[in-house]
Amino acid sequence: MTTTTTPPAHDVISSKRVEGTDVYNSAGDKVGTIDHLIIDKRSGQVRYAVMEFGGLLGMGADRYPIPWNMLQYDTARDGYVAPVDKAKLERAPRHGIDEAPDYDDAYDSSVKTYYGF
Predict the structure, then answer these.
(1) Does any domain span residue 5?
(2) Tens-digit pLDDT string for the chain (117 aa)
(3) Residues facing 89 on adjacent strands
(4) What is the pTM of this model?
């Protein structure tokens, strides 16, 4: 897989444009869609992209927080690429559509540990 290195037209992007963007694995297979972002209130940095994965038409789908720094934007795909496969996501930290973790230090540590950060 080759990602393009063309610089983006702008250095910033609205969260509305990120939400709904497809996420692909390194092999080019679509593994999910970004549902929303988790932003650190103190630093202002995006901590996670919460990806929707599984289910059918949004039903039965879970939410998977992916560390933001794992994602690379690929202009050719008009989506993000993350070094994950479906098997890894099936074991990853996640929550249901109507649930939300506290995103406290313990949860942050569990997500980072799972993805090797």
Answers:
(1) no
(2) 445 555 556 677 788 889 999 999 999 999 999 999 999 999 999 999 999 877 666 566 889 999 999 999 999 999 999 999 888 888 999 988 888 888 888 999 999 999 998
(3) none
(4) 0.81
The Cα 20–Cα 1 span in angstroms is 22
**69 domain residue, yes or no:** yes
Q: Which long-range contacts (CB under 8 A, 24 or more apart) does 69-73 make?
A: 69/117, 70/115, 71/23, 72/3, 73/8
Q: Which domain holds residue 61?
A: 15-114
Counted domains in the chain: 1
CB 48 within 8 A of CB 65: yes
Q: What is the CATH number of the domain that holds 34?
A: 2.30.30.240
> Which H helix or E strand runs over 78?
none
Q: Is the residue at 48 inside a domain?
A: yes
Residue 106 counted as domain residue: yes
Number of residues that make up the chain: 117
Q: Give the pLDDT confidence score for residue 72 in this predicted structure.
A: 95
